[in-house]
Amino acid sequence: MDVDSGSKRVFQRLGGPVENSKNYHHGNNNNSSSQIQKVCYHWRAGNCNRHPCPYLHRELPPPPNGSSKRGGGGGGFSDDYSSSSSSFSGPRSSRPNYSNTWGRAHGGGGGGGNRTLTRNNKPTEKVSKVCNFWIQGNCGYGEKCRYLHSWSTGDNFSMVAQLEGHLKVVSGIALPSDSNSLYTGSKDETVRVWDCTTGQCKVVIQLGGEVGCMINEGHWVFVGIPNAVKAWNTLTNSELSLTGPVGQVYAMVVGNDLLFAGTQDGSILAWKFNAGTNTFEPAASLTGHTHGVVSLVVGANRLYSGSMDCSIRVWNLETLQCVQTLKEHSSVVMSVLCWDQFLLSCSLDKTIKVWVATESGNLEVTYTHNEDHGLLTLCGMHDLESKPILLCSCNDNTVHLYDLPSFSERGKIYAKQEVRAIQMGPGGLFFTGDGAGQVKVWRWLAESTATTR
Questions:
Q1: Of 160, 193, 330, 395, which has the highest C-beta tally within 10 A?
Q2: Domain residue spans in the chain?
Q3: Which residues form the C3H1-type domain (predicted)?
Q4: Which residues are CB-contacts of 157 (< 8 A; sequence separation ≥ 6)?
């Protein structure tokens, strides 16, 4: 998080307001299919029924020569998968920088709108809940069902594949550099390795303990389990076991050439990679939290830790000393994230708080976003138009997608159970893992996929 002293960014819609929005749409008989470079007012409200619509169904015009492949329904999802070719000799990032304004944290198709027709052929809003009969494949109402027959609503993203195999909640997702494999960890005490070309599971690794978190750094994959961290080098197939944690390892992150792990007893352990011996040596133990550390992120020269004690601690990466404790949340701080000069945090208290530095250098809340349910995890990325998007998982089995800095909703993802892991990938891909053990692969699209409402 690149903090500018005293900065107070105004949270407003990117691109500025649309002038005379009530008058420029659906008020004339122009049927030209060429799009006017203004954003459709009714599309923003979610109820445009003109196809083709002469106004933009996106916040910004499409990029020059921009295009994206639509995900197929087959098993693979790697038609535009790209990997980093840089080397890695320790816990320093060598993955492509998909989004340079985001800090580094631990860890059937979509779209289509949310309206349908009743038996009387009158439009009605769909209930924001996935149809249980549709999930089982035997809903008799078809398109007339008042519940969703889709895993998502919204435009510009689509589900590419669904990976089945885990028996319990998916708690971590990782994509190592120079690898065509996706790693997923679960509380079923296994890590599964998936082939990105075929979408098939290649290996099931038994760990003998629940996976609390998983990250990758270059060619390394780190898995947090009770009382240990497993480290795998995907190039040499070597495996290391880092001991020292007390209880479950809930969160990990890499910063300043150190691997940090947040543990159940409230401490944060740090290891440094020794290239000569190809080992990770204990470097420090950061203490201060009174309950488990469940989220970590690195930004600027700071480590931020969210805890079950309802606080966020800010640590200087050079001295490893705590320089501030943030206590604005009233429940567990489930996830912390850096974006631009801001720190974002979410909690089971149903809020997302946006923090910015004051002239003194301390962080204070500059904006609070309220949800109807407790929040579980945050993930930041850019869409194909380079717009920053925040994904927020809630404990009502949904994931909300928001434009930043406006917090305008872009869409919603639904799951059988809570989504506990979200991970961005290359080529417009991102991944979600839920409590039912399902891993879904999603892709951002360059053009709107809106259909008739």
A1: 160
A2: 125-154, 212-370
A3: 34-60, 125-152
A4: 110, 111, 383, 401, 411, 442, 443, 444, 445
